[in-house]
Amino acid sequence: MEVKILNKEKNKLRLLVKGETHTLLNLIADYGNKDPKIKFIGYSIPHPLKTEAELNLQTIDEDPIQALKRQVSKATIDLEQLQKVFNSVFTNNKSKEKGPSK
């Protein structure tokens, strides 16, 4: 993945994200839409055959890079928790699937 800053202002940020499309950017946008300090967050994919997208972010009186970092941190924490839950479930299920030993 490659990220390039296309434009940065006091409370606005526009990035070009190469190597990612809906999967990651939709997750980040979803977290951003729940943050009261973010006025707008969204992304567009200029061409469907290219794996690159533009992420746009506008904050309410906050550095947009810090706001974006916060969204990535929130997503990371939740994904780590999900991984722990999955690992626990799959570990418990493996021991149950083996059945009685002979």
Structure notes:
The protein is α+β, with helices and mostly antiparallel strands. The chain has one domain (2-87): Gyrase A, domain 2 (2-Layer Sandwich). The chain has helices spanning 22-33, 64-97, and strands at 2-8, 12-18, 38-44, 52-59. The chain has a four-stranded antiparallel beta sheet, with helices on one face. The longest helix is centred in the last third of the chain and has 34 residues, at 64-97. The N and C termini lie far apart (50 Å). The model has no long low-confidence stretch (mean pLDDT 91).
List the helices and strands and how they pair.
Blueprint: E1 2-8, E2 12-18, H1 22-33, E3 38-44, E4 52-59, H2 64-97
Question: Percent of residues in beta strands?
Answer: 25-35%
Low-confidence stretches: none
* Tally of DSSP helical segments: 2
SSE order, as H and E? Answer: EEHEEH
Biggest sheet, spatial arrangement of strands: 1-2-4-3
Entry keywords:
four-stranded antiparallel beta sheet, 102 residues, Gyrase A, domain 2, 4 strands, globular, alpha+beta
Brief summary:
With 102 residues, this protein is an alpha+beta fold. Helix content is 45%, strand content 28%.
